[in-house]
Description:
The protein is an alpha+beta fold. The chain has 7 helices and 11 strands. The chain has a 7-stranded mixed beta sheet, sandwiched between helices. A 4-stranded mixed beta sheet has the order 1-2-4-3, with helices on one face. The longest helix is centred in the C-terminal third of the chain and has 15 residues, at 168-182.
Amino acid sequence: xxxxxxxxxxxxxxxxxxxxxxxxxxxxxxxxxxxxxxxxxxxxxxxxxxxxxxxxxxxxxxxxxxxxxxxxxxxxxxxxxxxxxxxxxxxxxxxxxxxxxxxxxxxxxxxxxxxxxxxxxxxxxxxxxxxxxxxxxxxxxxxxxxxxxxxxxxxxxxxxxxxxxxxxxxxxxxxxxxxxxxxxxxxxxxxxxxxxxxxxxxxxxxxxxxxxxxxx
Length: 216
């Protein structure tokens, strides 16, 4: 097992050669071209921006994903949706969602915080070029939750979510899955396992199946 040093050329190594935790490469940049190449091969950047000068690139061989038609909506979430307390939009405040994901629950002050200025700049440019999207949850005119990620073909690669009121991020994810299914979306990549995502229907699939689906 090894961690590869990237250079100015656009390439990624075979992820089967990486570390057990999914770390495969270090270096390169966060240009749009490199990010698109990364996601189309199952890689994503994840690093502590205060401690790490170069991006770290991960590609786990067991992928934690949600198939849109398998999204689990609990009884309590159904009740919340029926109350119609919140308004949900798409791509109305991408910058606001990034800010929320970076700072909610004092995330930006935590050790290992990863959503720093370089990441914000890179994904803002991805959004400007049509490769990144956000889902916003509003309480009247206040942004109270949401998520953002990268869109390629029929796959959505989730990056982060936040809630300032209970279950706002769950509302955003349910909305994404339902709308994505209607549009022919086949896979939502959750990147990392959490109990929160598992309770909503996320499960592991092997990299070989994953890469076949995102390249379909």
